[in-house]
């Protein structure tokens, strides 16, 4: 049974006070809080299992290597990859996308080739492609979204030409909460023999993601958004792509042999893991995934939906309220503006009441341009949030409306 009060005990930070008021943490799309078991795992790693991985014959190095490689297999089962060789550890979503833009781009993209993204991408899935434009003159094509915040699939299907080489889209929008139909997006792309990268930064914490069921070519996500440590993330790639792609960075561990005349590269996944990986955090991330799956992604999705429905219902009754993102399939994110109140003022005043929300463009400026606004206030929920916290948010927003004379 899902017991939120029991779950909250696993997250000591949720008992904090800010400005003498109980913390109401509603900035979960930016980063999630960590359960005690993850923090303890990190401490245990540094205290008892710390030696550099892959390089040592000594006991401790092999111990650390076993734990780190065990975490890779845990990532494999988390997203149902066919092989743990297809799991590359990175610093997070951003680095994973930069890796693909650089290495897939270098290997497969020529001047005039096209990459399809959507109008609701995080900057992390826009700027790496623009940086690559300094190397090859690739063309970015953009899938628009409708008033509900859903991608226009008819336009999408018509964007393909013989120059289309990759589709790179977010699974869940960090601003609108829209859960995009990535399985259908992939099916359409594959009918044109075009591979697809799925940005799972906002989906992996909330839904079961199965790369084989989706038939995704690449999936990327960040540890810190799935209740794991900062500084670690994952790039999943189908073997057929990763094997052909040139390495991203050079250094230790990614080589087979080095001489001043010629270097040959290591096999997967190490070809893409130059330098010492964050082997303590990879183990912490595996613990986080164990924790999340012990609650159950199905239960999480169901409970978070209740929080979202309850919050949306109450928000709709506030005069002057505009909610951005009303997709039929939506994750627990509420982006909003109240007429006459700047998002920054709203965020600042809610903060003084102990309520942590995010304000601004949320690293999605093109999305804001599509909406014709500069920014929103965003409340993003986790399974450790409560209905009482939703009540506090609603009361807080109403109080701010009162201060501004918006009634
Ligand atoms: N993609 C999406 C869809 C995201 O929401 C984010 C971070 C990223 C990529 C980048 O992830 P990183 O871990 O590499 O930084 N989104 C947010 C956010 O909504 N507020 O702060 C970070």
Structure description:
The chain is of the alpha/beta class and 407 residues long. It folds into 2 domains: 4-30 and 297-402, Aspartate Aminotransferase, domain 1 (Alpha-Beta Complex), CATH 3.90.1150.10; 39-293, Type I PLP-dependent aspartate aminotransferase-like (Major domain) (Aspartate Aminotransferase, domain 2, 3-Layer(aba) Sandwich). The chain is 39% helix and 17% strand. The protein has 14 helices and 17 strands. The chain has helices at residues 4-8, 36-48, 59-79, 93-108, 127-132, 153-158, 182-191, 211-214, 239-244, 279-295, 297-315, 343-352, 365-371, 387-403; strands at 17-18, 21-22, 24-25, 87-90, 114-118, 139-143, 164-170, 196-199, 218-222, 233-237, 255-258, 263-265, 321-324, 333-338, 355-356, 358-360, 376-380. A 7-stranded mixed sheet has the order 4-10-9-8-7-5-6, sandwiched between helices. Strands 13-14-17-16 form a 4-stranded antiparallel sheet, covered by helices on one side. Helix 2 (36-48) runs antiparallel to helix 10 and helix 3 packs parallel to helix 10. The longest helix is centred in the first third of the chain and has 21 residues, at 59-79. It is globular and about 75 Å long. The two termini are 40 Å apart. The mean pLDDT is 97. Bound molecules: ligand 7TS. Ligand 7TS is lined by residues 29-30, 92-94, 122, 124-125, 170, 174, 199, 201-202, 222, 358, 362-363.
